[in-house]
Amino acid sequence: MPRASGAPLLPGNCGSGALLPPRGPFAASVACETTTPGRRGGAGAVRAARAALRAVCGMLALRWGHSASGFRRALWPAGRPGPLAEEGALSGVWGRRRRSSASPCEQDHQRDWGHAELLEVLEARVRQLQAECVSEATVKRVGVAQGLRASARLQPPGKAQAGPEGTAEELGGRWAQKLDQEKFAMQKRKQQLELKLQVRAQQLACEYKLRVAPRLLDTQLAGRLQHWEQEVPEGLWEEQLVWLLQEAPRKLSPEVEQAPKAGSASVQQEIRQQRLLAFLECCLLTDHLPLAHHVLVTYHGRSRQQQRLTLAMYNTVMLGWARKGSFKELVYVFFMVKDAGLTPDLLSYAAALQCMGRLDQDTSTIQRCLDQMARDGLKLQGLFTSVPLRQEEQAVVLKAVRKAQPTFSPPPPPRPPPQVNTSPLLREIYAKSGPVSYPKLHLPLQSLQKLFREQLRMELATTVTVESVEKARVPTEEVLQARDTLKQLRAEWAEALCLGLQELKASEAQAARSCRSTIFPYLCVLSERELAELLLQTLQVLPPQGESLLSLAQQLGLRVFNRHTVQRKQLSSQVRALQRRYYRYLHLLASDTQVAAPPLPRQYWEALGAPAAPHEQPWPLPVLVQLGKKLAEVLVEVVRMPGSLVTPQGSCTLIPVLYHVYSFRSFRQIGILKPHPAFTELLAVAAEHTLTFEAAEVPMLCPPLPWMSPHTGAFLLSPTKLMRSLEGTMQHQRLLDSCPPAELHGALDALTQLGNCAWRVNGRVLDLVLELFTAKGCPRLGVPAPPSEAPRPPDGRLPPSASSAQKAEVRREVARCLKVAREMHSLRSDALYRLSLAQHLRDRVFWLPHNMDFRGRTYPCPPHFNHLGSDLARALLEFAQGRPLGPHGLDWLKIHLVNLTGLKKHEPLRARLLFADEVMDDILDSADRPMTGRKWWMEADEPWQALACCMEIARAVRTADPTAYVSHFPVHQDGSCNGLQHYAALGRDSVGAASVNLLPSDLPQDVYSGVAAQEFVWEASHYLVRQVFNSLQEMFSGTRAIQHWLTESARLISHAGSAVEWVTPLGIPVIQPYHQDSKVLISGGIQSLTFSQSGDTTQKPNTLKQKNGFPPNFIHSLDSSHMMLTALHCYRKGLTFVSVHDCFWTHAADVEVMNQVCREQFVQLHSQPILHNLSRFLVKRFCSGARSPKHSKNVWLGKLQDTLKSVPKTGAFDLEQVKHSTYFFS
């Protein structure tokens, strides 16, 4: 039987069971044709009835296989009614309780009962027609065919002539006559229904016709517009535009005047405005400008909704019409701007001039437009320097301007003036004089260009496929069959998803026309095929325990946005321009090229050409979640598989591959999408040997782009934030955008330097880890065990006589086993990703681009494989560029090894070096026989890094000249309680400084050793912990005073209604993202999602988090400043340098130089009046506003000002002593 269009035939599908249920007029025609075979009679009637029966079977199969409630019904035993979904409402991040997709609803039951009744009727009719056919055949055999032919003549219903009683004509014709009557009646009903449907379709067409002419609230403007529409030819509308520009903004109606101004809009209002603006912009990107105009006109015509509209929204639509040269529509938008009481800005005039340029308007109209622009205080040059127009659009605007002013010349391309960071801490970094020896990469120019092309291809593809390191299964017949089944299923799913996405687009387009909340334009940024591929990739990596719908929705929305951004760059000329510029940039880095007076990478890139194109504005978080939720629901609804894959040909039942359930996570109820166990089992049997990653999740194959701005840097095409934050948080981005560019140079250059470090995989360590990983793991060494090693729940059932205590114990044991299994799966997956990427990058050079958090702390962007992870993750990495050990490098390798063992923490460096020589036999044995020897390395605190160091030492000592041995091994130097070091330096606390190694000493100091015993029993632990912290407070008296001042300042600031802000010593603006949660609801579908958006300055601050977070966050901003200063000065001296917060890495040969730089920059940092600078900034930021009319508020502000100016007194500690402290970082 041919497969129905739009219904892919899955393995085990019963042909007609994939048919879609007929609806509308088509349903009526199907019902007519299948239930009234007319005068065909006999076998024809039977065939028609059987066809109807098959159609109803198909509808039932679809209802029971394809509906949202199909999963539970497919699993219910025959004859057993399914339970109703539990109802409830639980708000919060995890959303409201809704009916699960696994539960039937009443409408589904009603439809199914209706279909069942129809099925019974049709079955009875088939039996009747079969009996009739037998009677006819019998009559024919006795030679009464003539009578049958006579009765078969076409006659009007009810006019058939009756033969003699009991004849064959009566026996053969009564059913034909009855069916003929039914057919006539059904045809008449069909005609009536079609007529009604035509009328309704016309009504809907009128209802959803896109509006063009606006409805103005101002009566005078509305009258003028009506007059012009009726009496002025369309070609003369330029006069109307000039009149509109000259008109002062209209006074708003009282109803609108009462609305809150944009600056004081509520959080919810701001969220709605963000969504609406993003919707309009996306409509322009996807060529749905009439829809954008329709929505704008509809909102403008309703006074309450007009309050959401901003000038940016009107400008967006104006710019769209300008690009098309649609003058009348553009004038309509100007009417709305004036009606809303807004004043056109530069972008408004740019749109008008662009439209005039495309239509070649007369000179006088253009000149009057320019004159009005000047009267509004807007400069003509600003059209070419301050408005984000494309190059072609600027040319059209210039054409219009030159028609009125032929001698006008636009200013040269906006090259920012040479700005120099004025921070005294960075004066030496940006000094033109002084020797510099910036490091070069070890690769020649052609190799780097080839690596760039590989990275570009990878980012254009948006995903990377990597071979899995899981032990490959033997390709048995079962495995091969499972893989073939998966391949066939995925092909069918891709087609089904495309159809499902088309239906979703149609539904969302209708919602957009009626101005309801919709994601229609966002669905159009990628093709159905691309979205289907994205959804199938998501399905592939979903863990067996499932994932929260909210998290999955956000990930899907982000991936759509990222793919869209890459495509936009590809379709424009940006990729070609990037390649030309990057090839020139590589001359600075390549080993075989030279640049005169080499600058920093950012400076060199800046000198190569004009600034990059405007960045893609990210979609608001509610849009991302709503888009991802809709896509996830399509995945749940469409993707189905046979219920039994053991005998697929015998199974007609289709079950959802994903189902929606509710679960408790951390005492909260959340909705989860889980893969069906049958699908999980199929994946396990197939044991496919590939993993798919997003391009931005994988280390780069070429040096990252230098960070140039808060929007430009790191990956070639994939969008990356300079400052990582929770999605939807805009406050950090606003601060960075408003910050003078030169103030960020220190942070930008430090991040670029960290990203320029080339890495490679330590192959010997990787082989040993893989050997354990593919066996049964080794949790003691950080190699997770496979799921087969997870504890099993108790077998068997308890007897009926079991006590409640026994039952509770079994439940606890089952819960424990499930929890352990989930944790083991998570750890195993994390290790699988890391090791698979390491194997993929074996024998390759790669780079790790960096960004920072809101405090300035730096992090590598690729999440799965970097040096910020565990002991195992760090041991897999080494520098791609080696350095000879030199005279002291081998000693530093030995000291580093002893540090990794944790055995000589309180011993001087000389004692650690002697200890390394004493255990050299164990070191060499560990290097030569790591799994079969004495296994000394396994007892270290950091065993895998210790083993890697053992191997490096073994190679070095066995060379003829260890000083010439080229080492790639990174040696670490850790700060001693780095947070307390900064506190002691801020307060010039001599006692505290001595306890954290700021003072020179013969032995390393341990701040905890003098205040508590090293070992204590549990019963005494709470007492001892209290004693530890009491003693620490006595030792660090200056620290306690600073902490109290910071805490109290933050408390008063947040009580005044503001979040705490400050600027780091390197100029990074910081704001604490702790606000009262604002709930955002995404309703409908399988579950309503309610999530918190707590990261904007319009929301009230969370006082508790603000005051508790300020002291540690401020100290973290200082340690990040110290790290960045060290990185920049090491780069200036030609060192390779990376860090993990307060742990600094470099080559063994350069440890002494790095330590010297580290100490010098700490002294330089704390020589600044950090606390006094902070006090001045806070007073200016929070106490310099106008006095409040409320006396109580003025009293509060006075108290805040007094507190901020009461900077704690400092002690007499001499910072210069830090330069001579061996164990400051060691």
Automatic annotation (TrEMBL):
Q: Does the keyword section mention Phosphoprotein?
A: no
GO terms in the biological process aspect are: mitochondrial transcription
GO cellular component, as recorded = mitochondrial DNA-directed RNA polymerase complex
InterPro entries noted in UniProt: DNA-dir_Rpol_C_phage-type, DNA-dir_Rpol_phage-type, DNA/RNA_pol_sf, PPR_rpt, RNA_POL_N_sf, RPOL_N, TPR-like_helical_dom_sf
- Which of UniProt's keywords are assigned here? DNA-directed RNA polymerase, Nucleotidyltransferase, Transcription, Transferase, Transit peptide
Q: Where is this region: Disordered?
A: 782-809
Composition bias (Pro residues) maps to 784-797
Repeat positions for PPR:
310-344
One Pfam family per UniProt: RNA_pol
Q: Which residues form the DNA-directed RNA polymerase N-terminal domain?
A: 453-756
Query: Which molecular function terms from Gene Ontology are attached?
Result: DNA-directed RNA polymerase activity; mitochondrial promoter sequence-specific DNA binding
Enzyme class per UniProt:
transferase
Which EC numbers does the record give?
A: 2.7.7.6
- SUPFAM superfamilies xref list: DNA/RNA polymerases (SSF56672)
Q: Which reaction does it catalyse?
A: RNA(n) + a ribonucleoside 5'-triphosphate = RNA(n+1) + diphosphate
PANTHER family attached here? DNA-DIRECTED RNA POLYMERASE, MITOCHONDRIAL (PTHR10102:SF0)
Similarity field? Belongs to the phage and mitochondrial RNA polymerase family.
This chain belongs to which protein, by name?
DNA-directed RNA polymerase
Upper taxonomic lineage: Eukaryota, Metazoa, Chordata, Craniata, Vertebrata
